[in-house]
């Protein structure tokens, strides 16, 4: 009697199961293990897809836009509410990942915006921060000088301190995401992927050729290849994503002086050019110029920093952080932004291959949004949610709206 009841219960459970759950899980290949690709692969796997992640040089490698040690996470984007809302969601997901993986990925230092020549961006960010429940303070020039005496606030009228902002461990977290994918049943292959044959006359691709001689068969393909997207898809992406050279510098702080460490100083940003991260992880005081550099080849470009970049950074440090006027340059690197015309992301199907997705256009500010974007990509690819119009290919056919700020790599 009990056995018959168990069989009937099991049979009833099978009948009541939705049709979707009985379908064969789609096979998805994600190319690119940076912030966009890694998180997309992870969320695709969490939504039931059979996922293989592929990368040429590995997660967070030195050529990747997601390489390097640190990236800023903050919520200020002027009136562009979509990025503030995404940053809020991403921050929640970063914290959940830390708890789940028992690893430190996010350091809350706060981020100080110094309103000097043009305060419209900072001022217009306040309503969006409030709407997304980012904690912040507005500080007068007098309060700034009292709280941070190591900074020269000459010309700064007021400051906006984002209390929930901080920095993320970039290269390390890319590797952690891949480890998370593997622990949840995904696959990872380190190899170069050949561009698929996608044109108006070709059938949708069903496999991808790798440099190790193998073919990966799949139902869906996601290319999150950052600065390499224009090469992979010249007819569709072309100049809609342009890579620019960006120099990042680390200066040594005085021995025994912790005024420029993350314990005493927040991340700082001053439009329109410079931003930085206080000394952390036993590294120097990070300074970077957000001005778009010259066009750059992410594969073969020379990654030695320019003397001009060092000179300009020294001038800025001497003015804003006088004690660092003669600080030694102890480390440097050249990375790249991959910029879209309006600095928004690109998440859309290939127009000639409905099973091929293009994900990119980080534009210098994409890393922080990685988890939220990956969640969005998974829902788009698996047709749970429609493409966000602001991230679609079709938007390039209209006039670009005011661009968001990209400070905070």
**Low-pLDDT runs:** 1-22
Specify the number of helices: 10
How many angstroms does the end-to-end distance come to? Answer: 66 Å
**Name of the top-level CATH class of the domain at 25-107 and 166-240 and 340-409:** Alpha Beta
Q: Architecture of the domain at 25-107 and 166-240 and 340-409 in CATH?
A: 3-Layer(bba) Sandwich
Helix-strand sequence: HHEHEEHEEHEHEEHEEEEHEEEEHEEEH
Any idea what the CATH superfamily of the domain at 25-107 and 166-240 and 340-409 is called?
A: FAD/NAD(P)-binding domain
Describe the strand arrangement of the main beta sheet, using strand numbers: 6-7-5-14-15-16-13-17
Beta fraction: 15-25%
- The CATH topology of the domain at 25-107 and 166-240 and 340-409: FAD/NAD(P)-binding domain
For the secondary structure, the number of strands is 19
Largest sheet: 8 strands, mixed
Structural shape = globular
Structural class, please? alpha/beta
Q: Which bin fits the share of residues in helices? A: 25-40%
Mean pLDDT: 92
- Calculate Rg over CA atoms: 23 Å
What distinguishing features does this structure have?
single chain, 409 residues, alpha/beta, FAD/NAD(P)-binding domain, 8-stranded mixed sheet, 6-stranded mixed sheet, 24% strand, globular, disordered N terminus
Describe what you observe in this structure.
- The chain has 409 residues and is α/β, with parallel strands linked by helices.
- It has a domain at 25-107 and 166-240 and 340-409: FAD/NAD(P)-binding domain (3-Layer(bba) Sandwich).
- 28% of the residues lie in helices and 24% in strands.
- It contains 10 helices and 19 strands.
- The strands form 4 sheets. Strands 6-7-5-14-15-16-13-17 form an 8-stranded mixed β-sheet, sandwiched between helices. It has a 6-stranded mixed β-sheet with strand order 9-2-1-12-19-18, covered by helices on one side.
- The longest helix has 21 residues, at 81-101.
């Amino acid at each position: 009697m009990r056995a018959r009841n168990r069989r009937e219960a099991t049979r009833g459970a099978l009948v009541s199961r939705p049709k979707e759950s009985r379908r064969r899980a789609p096979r998805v290949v994600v190319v690119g293990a940076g912030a966009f690709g890694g998180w997309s692969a992870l969320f695709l796997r969490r939504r039931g897809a059979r996922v293989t992640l592929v990368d040429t040089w590995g997660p967070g490698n030195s050529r990747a836009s997601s390489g390097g040690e640190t990236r800023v996470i903050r919520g200020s984007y002027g009136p562009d509410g979509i990025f503030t809302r995404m940053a809020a969601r991403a921050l929640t997901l970063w914290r959940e990942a830390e708890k789940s993986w028992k690893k430190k990925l996010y350091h809350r230092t706060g981020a100080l915006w110094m309103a000097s020549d043009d305060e419209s961006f900072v001022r217009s960010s306040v309503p969006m921060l409030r709407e997304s429940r980012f904690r912040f303070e507005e500080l007068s020039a007098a309060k700034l000088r009292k709280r941070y005496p190591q900074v020269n606030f000459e010309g700064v009228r007021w400051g906006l301190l984002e209390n929930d902002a901080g920095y993320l461990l970039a290269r390390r977290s890319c590797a952690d995401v891949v480890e998370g994918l593997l622990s949840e049943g995904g696959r990872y292959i380190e190899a170069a992927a050949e561009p698929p044959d996608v044109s108006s006359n070709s059938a949708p691709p069903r496999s991808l050729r790798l440099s190790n001689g193998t073919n990966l068969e799949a139902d869906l393909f996601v290319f999150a290849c950052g600065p390499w997207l224009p090469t992979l898809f010249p007819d569709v992406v072309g100049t809609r994503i342009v890579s620019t050279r960006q120099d990042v510098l680390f200066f040594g702080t005085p021995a025994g002086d912790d005024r420029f460490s993350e314990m005493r100083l927040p991340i700082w940003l001053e439009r329109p050019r410079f931003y930085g991260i206080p000394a952390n992880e036993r590294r120097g005081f990070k300074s970077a110029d957000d001005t778009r550099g010259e066009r750059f080849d992410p594969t073969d470009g020379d990654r030695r920093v320019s003397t001009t970049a060092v000179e300009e950074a020294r001038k800025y440090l001497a003015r804003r952080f006088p004690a660092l006027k003669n600080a030694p340059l102890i480390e440097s690197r050249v990375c790249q932004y991959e910029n879209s015309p309006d600095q928004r992301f690109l998440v859309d199907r290939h127009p000639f291959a409905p099973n091929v997705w293009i994900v990119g256009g980080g534009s210098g500010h994409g890393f922080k949004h990685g988890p939220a974007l990956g969640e969005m990509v998974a829902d788009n690819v698996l047709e749970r949610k429609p493409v966000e119009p602001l991230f679609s290919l079709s938007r390039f056919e209209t006039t670009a709206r005011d661009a968001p700020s990209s400070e905070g790599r």
